[in-house]
Amino acid sequence: MAQMFGLSRTRAADLIARDLVQLDGTGTAKSDRVMPGALLEVTIPVEVDPLAVRAEVVEGIGIIYDDDAIVVIDKPVGVAVHPSPGWSGPTVVGHLAGAGFRIATSGASERQGIVQRLDVGTSGVMVICKSEYAYSVLKNAFRHRTVDKTYHAVVQGHPDPLEGTIDAPIARHPGADYKFAVLDGGRPSVTHYSTLEAHRFASLLEVHLETGRTHQIRVHMSALKHPCVGDLTYGADPTLAKRFKVTRQWLHAVKLGFEHPETGSYVEFESPYPADLAASLETIRAAD
Q1: Percent of the chain, pLDDT > 90?
Q2: How far is the C-alpha of 272 from the C-alpha of 288, rounded, in Å?
Q3: Which has the closest alpha carbon to 74: 267, 261, 228, 253?
Q4: Which run of H or E residues covers position 268?
Q5: What confidence score (pLDDT) does residue 50 get?
Q6: 241 and 103 part of one domain
Q7: What pTM was estimated for this model as a whole?
Q8: Residue 21 sits in the same domain as residue 105
């Protein structure tokens, strides 16, 4: 099989194990010999690359700003920024390709033009680069923490103090590959927060990220024992989430500010609360 079809021996053995190989009309084992005159039939399935960008227009993605250097979007919940193993849903890069946007080719093939990311379950404003120069400049700006990233989060209870800084390293959770945690030896992570509204069961916070680790706000607020409302992955109360009709973590990227890579002037873009988060916040306010 390896010689006839140009397959590796490992790949050939896998096809046999999956019953995709027949010798004279019957199943076979990898040790069987193919004699002269025998009929060898092999089915080689088309393997889909999990990291391939699938061009498709995604409902709900809004274009906030667009020029030759950058495109700023309003990402809805349930959309990943780029393809990844285990994710088969819609992506930001897939939407841009489907909508006819040409973005920078810098970066890994599945995330070309991407200089920042938002979780699938987090909505809000983000920037994607269209030119190679813009990619280089903004990638450097994010690396050197000169980009202003502002989030709003509704967390359980009332953080004490009402305004503060969380400086705690974050690493992958040792017991769950899909989670992160505050751990010694993790990557330095700094989150600044202030309380905008304090309600009976929850608080609305404004959060500024100094670093940009995966799940950073969610991990840091959980470590303070004030997880984002609805964030069941990081310890939120499911009863409270149900009461306030929150079906995902209450976390939204409301503002993004940086020096435009082409003009050098400071630009700032905002995203209003999506309908589900706005409605749940009103329910929380009404419960006082």
Answers
A1: 80
A2: 24
A3: 253
A4: strand 266-270
A5: 67
A6: no
A7: 0.82
A8: no
Residue 3: count other Cβ atoms within 10 Å of its Cβ: 7
Q: What value does the mean pLDDT of the chain take? A: 93
Distance CA 32, CA 274 (A): 61
Three-class secondary structure of residue 134 per DSSP:
helix
Q: Determine which one of 14, 32, 66, 119 is catalytic.
A: 119
Is-contact 224 166, C-beta < 8 A?
Answer: yes
Residues 200 and 274 in one domain: yes
Taking the CA atoms of residue 156, residue 157, residue 158 and residue 160 in that order, the dihedral angle to the nearest 10 degrees is -90
Let me know if 119 is a catalytic residue.
Answer: yes
- Beta-bridged to residue 27, according to DSSP, are 22
Q: How far is CA 177 from CA 111, 158, 264, in A?
A: 21, 30, 40
Q: Could you tell me if 185 and 283 lie in one domain?
A: yes
Residue keyed to tokens 């992570």: 189
Q: Beta strand pairing status for 62-66 and 26-27? A: unpaired
Read off the tokens for 260: 């435009």
Residue range(s) defining the domain that contains residue 69: 50-144
Which amino acid, residue 152? H
Q: Which segments within 157-250 are labelled E, that is strand?
A: 163-167, 170-172, 180-182, 190-198, 202-209
* Number of compact structural domains in the chain: 3
Q: Which CA distances in Å does 71 have to 66, 76, 242, 253?
A: 4, 16, 36, 16
- Here the tokens at position 218 are 């969610």
